[in-house]
């Protein structure tokens, strides 16, 4: 058994430092990535309670997140068994907590009062999954689910060990599901190029309707993408999206999905205090990020128009106008061959100045999607 406590602490620490999305960071861990993700998200749900415990090192350091993870474990199962192969850091953190923190209030809290999820826990059910089988599996785990407005996206009452649900679908937030749901509402088949694809959630979702090619620049993230996507017959390319766009052949792709690196400010809005403290999305490199987003989208649209692409989606898990509507306005001004297409009428939250676009403003699941159609 690997030391998932240290791995979860590392993932949460990197997530806080905006190295990447929590899911991708956990999946990048060497061993038991799914268990690490389940633990990390459970800690996030419990974070408001854990951070109020007196005596911990409140400095947002790796050590702080290690303490938070172990407090969560202490509260749910007791401190990890000494016989497990725990790292020196985990053993030291347990000793620190035992010596410096009053653990009694944690023991006294009832789990029901403690586990108040901050963000909804979404699950995307595969199209091939029978709802009856899925419901039966959840019943066995004592978990309930509620349907969203999309028939294959549900909210789970709590997070089960992810391996138990692997046959039925994927953990994927409703915001992250939106780009492919938008495409599926316009066309029902075709070829799709996902330009910034790792860790592969949208490529996997898209592969249920389209023939998908998934492109990723970062070698480490590409390896995760490949491991997840190749078994689903998705072609994976490890290259810079700018080069891949240059290599598109005429009529090779009907659709381009562009979900580039962003500030991830939408994933932080579940903890307003933390977001403000970090000044998420308003940091000095926002400008650099926006330049990248504008350049790559413009290139995808320009080449796409030449090579017969019919639709391009642009999405971010940011809630900033600068990374969303302003990027859309910039490219529409620069390239007159494309127009915005109205998507998902039934989705109520729309773009700030463009009712064609969709936004998700739910805490922790902030998202934006625009779909362009070739005129
Ligand atoms: C927001 S994440 C994509 C998430 C993914 N669409 C999913 O749903 O799982 C952005 C990805 O773009 C990749 N990326 C950044 N610049 C790139 C480039 N120039 N070419 C290809 N991929 C790039 C990053 O490494 C990162 O994996």
Broad structural category = alpha/beta
Q: Share of helix among residues?
A: 40-55%
What do the pLDDT scores average to? Answer: 88
- Assign the CATH architecture of the largest domain: 3-Layer(aba) Sandwich
Summarize the structure.
This protein is α/β, with parallel strands linked by helices.
Provide the descriptors you would attach to this structure in a database record.
14% strand; 375 residues; 3 domains; alpha/beta; binds S-adenosylmethionine; Alpha-Beta Plaits; Rossmann fold; four-stranded antiparallel sheet; single chain
Folded structure, characterized:
This protein has 17 helices and twelve strands. By secondary structure, the chain is α/β, with parallel strands linked by helices. It folds into three domains: 4-114, no CATH class; 121-170, Alpha-Beta Plaits; 174-374, Rossmann fold. The active site is at 317 (nucleophile). This is tRNA/rRNA_cytosine-C5-methylase. InterPro entries: MeTrfase_RsmB-F_NOP2_cat, MeTrfase_RsmB-F_NOP2_dom, RCMT, SAM-dependent_MTases_sf. It comes from Hexamita inflata.
């Amino acid at each position: 058994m690997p030391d998932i406590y240290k791995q979860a602490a590392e993932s949460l620490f990197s997530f806080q430092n905006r190295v990447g999305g929590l899911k991708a960071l956990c999946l990048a861990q060497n061993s038991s990535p799914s268990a690490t993700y389940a633990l990390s998200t459970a800690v996030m749900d419990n974070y408001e309670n854990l951070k109020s415990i007196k005596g911990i090192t409140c400095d947002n350091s790796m050590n702080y997140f290690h303490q938070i993870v172990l407090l969560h474990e202490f509260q749910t199962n007791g401190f990890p068994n000494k016989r497990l192969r725990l790292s020196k850091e985990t053993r030291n953190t347990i000793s620190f907590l035992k010596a410096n923190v009053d653990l009694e209030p944690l023991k006294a809290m009832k789990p029901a009062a403690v586990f108040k999820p901050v963000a909804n826990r979404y699950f995307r059910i595969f199209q091939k999954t029978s709802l009856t089988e899925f419901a039966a599996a959840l019943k066995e785990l004592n978990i309930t689910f509620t349907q969203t407005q999309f028939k294959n996206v549900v909210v789970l009452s709590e997070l089960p060990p992810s391996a138990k649900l692997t046959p039925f679908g994927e953990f994927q937030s409703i915001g992250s599901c939106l780009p492919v749901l938008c495409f599926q509402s316009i066309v029902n088949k075709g070829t799709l190029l996902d330009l910034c694809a790792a860790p592969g959630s949208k490529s996997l979702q898209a592969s249920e309707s389209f023939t998908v090619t998934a492109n990723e620049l970062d070698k480490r993230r590409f390896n995760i993408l490949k491991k997840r996507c190749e078994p689903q017959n998705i072609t994976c390319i490890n290259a810079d999206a700018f080069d891949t766009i240059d290599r598109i052949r005429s009529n090779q792709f009907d659709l381009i999905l562009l979900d580039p690196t962003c500030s991830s400010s939408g994933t932080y809005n579940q903890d307003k205090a933390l977001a403000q403290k970090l000044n998420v999305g308003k940091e000095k490199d926002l400008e650099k990020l926006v330049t990248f987003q504008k350049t790559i989208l413009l290139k995808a649209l320009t080449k796409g128009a030449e090579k017969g692409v019919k639709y391009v989606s642009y999405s971010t898990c940011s809630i900033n106008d600068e990374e969303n509507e302003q990027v859309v306005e910039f490219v529409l001004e620069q390239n007159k061959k494309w127009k915005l297409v109205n998507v998902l009428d039934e989705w109520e939250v729309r773009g700030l100045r463009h009712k064609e676009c969709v936004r998700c403003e739910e805490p922790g699941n902030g998202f934006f999607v625009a779909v362009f159609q070739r005129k």
